[in-house]
Write a structure and sequence with these properties.
Elements: E1 10-13, H1 19-27, E2 36-40, H2 41-54, E3 58-63, H3 70-79, E4 82-85, H4 88-95, E5 104-106, H5 113-122, E6 126-129, H6 132-141, E7 146-151, E8 158-160, H7 174-184, E9 187-193, E10 197-199, H8 203-221, E11 228-230, H9 244-257, E12 264-267, H10 271-274, E13 278-293, E14 300-309, H11 318-322, E15 329-331, E16 341-346, E17 355-362, E18 370-373, E19 394-400, H12 401-410, E20 418-421, E21 442-449, E22 452-459
Length: about 450
């Protein structure tokens, strides 16, 4: 892993430190006022270990759109994931890390012509489609592409539905599209689907895999020999979530519908890898008390407190508008014994729609206090804007000492990339990582040699 951005230096945690202790260290030193993130690389490594254990047959192709931080991409590339890209800019970002083109799937069913031409020029051959127009574009611009037909199979309950925009009907539309592709001489190699981002109905994967089997079988009648199944995204990644049930259904469905081990199975997890890795800290810069007067007695009471913080829906909290995320504010200080009262949280811009939390019980906080938001790694920073001149929060990268040792042993890093943080651990969050052990899974390291790339397998004991 190469940390190429000076703003993303990695801080090494000792065994007594954790994300929350780092947040306190940053918040209460050097007159810190701007909102900031802490990203835990170890959380990403643990997620990868979990994926490989739960879904051993499914190769993850990380959805770059979810969080395109170079640090995140470098770590995942080092761990051996592929990448799901949706544009030529995302393709270029991944290729700039010396990732091979065959580790990329261009998973956007409706692509601008210039992006198709670019994919052809850099050798990214796997691309998705769900309409006839795309087939004719590819025939003209990239006739040697390896196409993957995307079918629609929606979960009943998902954080963000995608079927209204992408995916052909597997029964009424897919056969006709495959016949057209065959007549055009286009190489279709498999089927993809996406049940919806943040899927909350694991059974949706069984329906989708069953539908994909039917499309495989029909394609064989046209002379196609499909060999790729793309399970798309939808895997939750926040604190308190689990992919265990989804993994159980996927594994059993693959055994039933795709027992042939020669079929390559991939997926496009995004939030699973990065959601819980990012924690956001925001500073209260203003407070407004909404006073209520009793019409009978004339007595006044503070009926509601409005807290104004230095990040909002035009910044990190765009995830509320576009990703339907439920935000949980947590005060950084310990307010034991404090009376909790109805409150709301507002962003810093002049837009009245810039509301982060509409109604929540919070203690009596002061200007300069901090509020922390966990699970802020997915679909936040890539969409954030500096509207009204308010900056996008800086990201502080942290890793446990044993993660640093793993990276130091395997990758060409120098100590200049890292800083030791000796932060006293406190009891507000019981998240000590001192018992963390190194993962036992192969890590694929890309080593340039002349014009080619050699790959070696490392197993961390």
């Amino acid at each position: 892993m190469k940390i190429v951005n000076a703003e993303e230096r990695v801080h090494i945690l000792d065994s007594q430190s954790n994300v929350w202790s780092v947040i306190r260290e940053i918040a209460y030193t050097n007159n810190q006022e701007e909102a900031f993130y802490v990203c835990d690389i170890g959380d990403i490594v643990r997620k990868h270990k979990m994926w490989k254990a739960r879904l051993p047959r499914v190769e993850p192709y990380y959805a770059v759109k979810c969080n395109d931080s170079l640090t995140v991409l470098e770590v995942l590339s080092t761990l051996g994931t592929g990448f799901d890209c949706a544009s030529k800019a995302e393709i270029n970002k991944v290729l700039s890390m010396n990732v091979r083109p065959d580790r990329i799937i261009f998973a956007n069913p409706a692509k601008p012509a210039s992006h198709i031409r670019h994919a052809a020029s850099v050798g990214v051959s796997r691309m998705t489609f769900d309409n006839e127009t795309e087939l004719h574009k590819v025939k003209k611009l990239y006739p040697n592409a390896e196409m993957v037909i995307r079918i629609r199979s929606d979960a009943v309950d998902a954080q963000a539905q995608l079927g209204m925009k992408f995916g052909c009907n597997p029964i009424t539309e897919a056969p006709e599209l495959l016949r057209i592709a065959r007549s055009l001489g286009i190489n279709v190699i498999g089927v993809s689907f996406h049940v919806g981002s943040g899927c909350r109905e694991p059974e949706a994967f069984q329906r989708a895999i069953s539908a994909a089997r039917d499309v495989f079988d029909y394609a064989s009648t046209l002379g196609y020999q499909f060999h790729l199944l793309d399970l798309g995204g939808g895997y939750p990644g926040g604190h308190g979530t689990s992919i265990d049930k989804i993994a159980e259904i996927i594994n059993s469905s693959l055994d039933e519908y795709f027992p042939d081990p020669s079929i390559e199975v991939i997926a496009e997890p995004g939030r699973f890898y990065v959601c819980s890795a990012y924690t956001l800290a925001c500073n209260i810069h203003s407070i407004r008390n909404v006073i209520e007067t009793d019409p009978e007695t004339g007595n006044t009471t503070n009926a509601h407190t409005m807290y104004y913080i230095n990040d909002g829906v035009y910044g990190s909290f765009n995830c509320i508008l576009y990703d339907h995320q439920v935000i949980v504010p947590m005060p950084l200080k310990d307010y034991a014994g404090s009376k909790y009262q109805p409150s709301s949280i507002w962003g810093p811009t002049c837009d009245g729609l810039d509301q982060v939390v509409e109604n929540v019980l919070l203690p009596d906080m002061k200007v300069g206090d901090w509020i922390v938001f966990e699970d802020m790694g997915a679909y936040t920073l890539p969409v954030a804007s500096p509207f009204n001149g308010f900056p996008i929060p800086k990201v502080h990268i942290v890793a446990e000492e044993n993660i640093w040792m793993l990276l130091q042993d395997l990758l060409p890093l120098s100590d200049d990339h890292f800083e030791m943080l000796k932060v006293p651990a406190k009891k507000m969050r019981e998240e000590s990582f001192s018992d963390f052990t190194l993962p036992h899974f192969p890590i694929r390291i890309e080593i340039p040699a002349n014009d080619d790339a050699l790959f070696e397998q490392y197993v961390i004991d």
